[in-house]
Design a protein that fits this description.
This protein has nine helices and no strands. It has helices at 2-32, 36-58, 69-94, 99-121, 130-148, 160-173, 175-212, 218-239, 251-276. Helix 1 (2-32) crosses helix 3 (69-94).
Length: 279
């Protein structure tokens, strides 16, 4: 019973942290007007929480399990999946997507990917019964419904003259505006797909890494933090100049983005704790 309550608490922690991750990251991205800069901040937060803190805790020598090459590899892959998922969310927001529908799409599709990949890795497709598959179909249906009926901005009375003028301007531009809007829609869709595929693969891959290291909680977290640092800090910092990033660093943007990264890292810890409790 204690393990069950611990697992549910860990799941609730992850659900909360990853649930508010998108809106918090959106504030950071808007403040810096950049896709790469908030990504760097997310990576730094992961490094502090998922590498520095666990290493300090492990120095006490109370962590079970051991380092193994297989466990490190799987855990690094999980960290890479997490980093690419975070990048997908940032790209979706940069392309004009809003957290109110981007995040439900990601977290609606990720469980389906998680289930299919878990069944593939464990050769357990035969265990997927009809009611369970029906539930997955409902999840997919819900994600599609969110996309089709996503909230549209409401125009107040003061905005109507400007809206009329904008509409006239759009009519004059003809098909160009429609083409650009369609391109942005597909950019958001591709970015969301990257995020849901990456985060959907995260859980099963991380579970393999944790199991290979004897159920260790901190070792897989350290590997995740290292992968984030490599992918979300070193690479973007090297690309800021060559890609001509037009954003700028700001205290507000850094604070929001670091907060998002902290939420992501704590959510990752919640996932590991849920596995450690038998999930």
């Amino acid at each position: 019973m204690t393990h069950l309550l611990g697992m549910l608490a860990a799941i609730a922690l992850t659900a909360f942290c990853w649930g508010v991750y998108g809106p918090v990251l959106h504030f950071g991205r808007d403040a810096m007007q950049s896709a790469l800069r908030p990504f760097v901040c997310v990576g730094l937060a992961y490094f502090l929480i998922a590498v520095i803190a666990p290493v300090a805790l492990m120095s006490r020598g109370r962590e079970k399990g051991s380092w193994t090459s297989t466990g490190v590899l799987w855990s690094l892959l999980a960290g890479a999946a997490g980093a690419f998922g975070a990048l997908g969310v940032i790209l979706a927001l940069t392309a004009g997507g809003k957290p109110i529908y981007v995040m439900p799409l990601v977290f609606g599709g990720a469980p389906v990917v998680n289930t299919l990949l878990t069944a593939f890795l464990n050769k357990a497709f035969g265990q997927l019964k009809a009611p369970f598959l029906a539930g997955l179909i409902l999840v997919i249906t819900g994600a599609v419904t969110v996309l089709v009926f996503k909230p549209q901005p409401q125009l107040g009375h003061a905005d109507k003259p400007a809206a009329v003028e904008a509409a006239a301007s759009a009519d004059a531009e003809g098909k160009v505006g429609v083409k650009q809007e369609t391109e942005r829609f597909f950019e958001v869709l591709l970015a969301v797909t990257l995020a849901l595929l990456s985060w959907g693969a995260y859980g099963p891959v991380l579970h393999k890494g944790q199991a290979a290291m004897g159920g260790s909680r901190l070792r897989p977290l350290i590997c995740i933090g290292v992968a984030y640092f490599l992918i979300a800090v070193l690479v973007p910092m090297a690309l800021l100049g060559p890609l001509g990033d037009e954003g700028s660093w700001s205290f507000t943007g850094i604070a929001w983005s670091m907060a998002a990264g902290s939420l992501g890292a704590i959510g990752a810890l919640g996932t590991i704790l849920a596995f450690a409790c038998g999930g």
